[in-house]
Amino acid sequence: MTAELVEPVGVGYPVLEARGVTMIFGGLTALNDVSLTLHHGQIFGLIGPNGAGKTTFFNCLTGLYTPTRGEVVLHGVPLTGDPAAVTIAGIARTFQNIRLFPNMTVLENVLVGRHCRMRQGPIASLLHGPVFRRVEREARERSRELLAFVGLSKMEGEVARNLPYGDQRRLEIARALATDPKVLLLDEPTAGMNPQETDATRHLIFQIRDTGVAAVVIEHDTKFIFGLCDQVAVLVQGELLVEGTPETVRDDPRVIEAYLGKPREEVEAEVRAAAAEHGREDG
Amino acid sequence: MSNAVQAIRRGAGFTSTRPRLAVPLSALGAVLLIAGSLLPWATFILNDAPYPEKATLQFFDAPFEVGGYRAHLLWFGVAALVVTFVTRIPGRGRVLRALGWGGLAVALITTFFIAQRGGGLGAVTAADGATALGGIVGIAGGLLLILGATAAGIGEIPQWRTDLPRPLAWLVLAVAFAGVLYLVSLTLTAGGTGGASNPHAGPVFVAFLGMAGGLLGALHGLGVTRWVSALSEGHRAFSIVVLVLCALALPLTKADSEYWMTVSVTIGVYAVTAIGLNIVVGLAGLLDLGYVAFMGIGAFVAANLSGATASKLGVTLPFPIVAVIAAVIAGVFGAVVGSPTLRVRGDYLAIVTLAFGEIFRKSAQNNIGGLTGGANAIPGIPQLEIGGTAFSDSITVGSVELPAGVLYYFLIVLVVAAVMAIFANLKSSRIGRAWIAIREDEDAARAMGIKTGKIKILAFLVGATLAGVAGAIFAHKFSQASYDQFTFIESVTLLAAVILGGMGTIPGAVLGASLLFVLPERLREFADYRLMIFGLALVFIMRFRPQGLVPDRVRRAEFAGETAEGKSIEELEEELVAEHELAEEAAVGATAKENPS
């Protein structure tokens, strides 16, 4: 672990707050009264065993689900349950299983991210007047900056589906950053990566944090999370078990129990399930 | 990874492992093509007209009179012979393969036709002591040429310099577009006007299409088409002007009668509609099976507002206003039909649009509101006029007399050009990118802050507007609007035009519309077979060229820096397959590691 890179940033003002988020599907309580606060300049890690409700929580943050009870608040403004509105408000996300626009070029993928920060309507788009062209040029410049930032400058004309796996993940991050987010949500950003790529991703997330964008990261890889995040929360069976610095979370006996403190047979079953799920995602 | 690609390539075909056979096979194929073109093709003279002539060795009687499909085969054979022995020609394998396919198509179509008319294979081999082996020899020549070309190895398409000085580039473009005009004119008129006096127009036309396909394939293999398209992207304004001028010059070529003007205007009207549908289907990825209804709405609006006696409204407005009203009303209906897209996706949306198309047709048939004339249609829509000259008249400019209906042709050329500009501008804007993003992955598009509902309805609205304009012109040109001109089969054909031509591209939509609305007209001789031929052609194109005749993204990606070595689509696909296999292996390996038990 590269400890020198983890510089705990002083806690800034709250950016994103989940207040008592509860999500009930039929008779199943997927999330029960989860409250978390993300501060400016923070990297926030969310871990937990499979089925703990991490993805459900993520979907509540991104507006895909509207919480049964509770609310998500960005800069003091409650969010409505619409993914587009949430993104416009300033929360961008990446997907666990990469969801680029496969037949668009790399640059166009990032330009789609600029969509919600551009204002040209149908008439302007039809006429391609001077203002349209200026805005379009600025969007391209900004997109190229972001591609340079994630290290994909040379690939801008390539079709997204032809990119190697790691580059696709980085392109997804560039596309999300193009929406000028205040908060970036990363859903398993290192899934399927080798150690070098994982390390590069860690550096990239630190760089993003340094530009003033707070990040929330979901990961299975606890080692990665503890080396990356300023604050870590553990979800178990839809409830917030522990929240704190990586050190406190790592040494907390309840976390150890949640991950390890079960009879051997059960753990083995879980590992098999995880492996099976992993295989399915890769396919 | 490159090893995997190599392995796939090595195993690609039987002949590709036998390069020594390349030259003998190609040479033999070329010679057979030439021989086939000079041999007799039929053992009899058809009852209704002397086609194909009972071709004796006419070439030696009158050296320059070997015409029609036989001349095409002769050219192909000579060209193939030259390409076989001149090894320095770039893209040799591809050129030979295209010439082989072209020759095969011409020979096959003609032979099939002779056999069908003559009542079996006897017609193309022997009867009453006469032998006619031209067809068989030609087919064999085409096949051998294809085999020889594959044996030589299909190389990459050569890249030509595109950084030409401006005058030279302009000259190249002007010549290329003039060539396109010439080829279009020849293709359109190949076989002449069908009818009782010319019963073989259909097969002559189809054989010509085979020749044109082979010719274009050979030019593509040489890298010429790609070169011209790259040049035209670099000199966009000039290209557009020259293309429009070339299009306007069509009445000066062989296509100089009212019949060809009508055919061209029909193509233009459906091309406009297809470009509109291309926004909905090609860009936004929304399947619309009732699209022709918008064209119908435009036609009925024009019928009612232009002073036709059957119209209940009894108003007569000038055409520009009528066109705008038709566009607006069609657009409003488009937005209404598009609104279910907020809730309904994919197959279900297709059913909604299908239902809308049927509702429109049935309402028009039942003369709803007295606006559609019901089964009587609305006849007698007046011709458009400009300065006292009706659009259906012929006009004389200086000493040149232009055919009747040429003004409709000029109008539709300008409208097609305008619609192309609308499509291109929208496509390369924030809205166009949003449409494509929705097509690619709607959820991801929404997560990027795109208000997908609004954007999808906008696609329907714009598409319907364009169809409305097309419908208004259609109503005037054919001076009637009838419910049975806008049925499900028209919608499906339009959809096929878009998919066949290449989703999301302008040339694709225009080419698709041209083919699909000209072919049935030109295939009348095949009568009962024509829909079958049509369907088979669609199946084959979808099987062997699923990206459409003029594909969009892949081609452009090939021009971009990273793949500048000019990979073909097949090669890219091969690589993807190989990568996919490797990824799967890796995934299996990873799972095995994680789960050692």
Descriptive overview:
The complex is a heterodimer of chains A (283) and B (597). Chain A is of the alpha/beta class and 283 residues long. Chain A folds into two domains: 193 residues, Rossmann fold; 81 residues, no CATH class. Helix content of chain A is 42%, strand content 22%. Chain A contains eleven helices and ten strands. Chain A has a six-stranded mixed sheet with strand order 6-7-8-3-9-10, sandwiched between helices. Chain A has a four-stranded antiparallel sheet with strand order 2-1-4-5, covered by helices on one side. In chain A, a hairpin with a 2-residue loop joins strand 9 and strand 10. In chain A, helix 3 packs across helix 5 and helix 3 packs parallel to helix 6. The longest helix of chain A has 21 residues. The two termini of chain A are 30 Å apart. The N terminus of chain A is likely disordered. With 597 residues, chain B is an all-alpha fold. Chain B is built from 23 helices and six strands. In chain B, strands 1-2 form a two-stranded antiparallel sheet. A two-stranded antiparallel ribbon of chain B has the order 3-4. In chain B, a hairpin with a 2-residue loop joins strand 5 and strand 6. Chains A and B meet through helix 2, helix 3, helix 4, helix 5 and helix 6 of A and helix 15, helix 16, helix 17, helix 18 and helix 22 of B.
Keywords:
heterodimer; A: 283 residues; alpha/beta; Rossmann fold; 2 domains; disordered N terminus; B: 597 residues; mainly alpha; two-stranded antiparallel ribbon; 65% helix; disordered C terminus
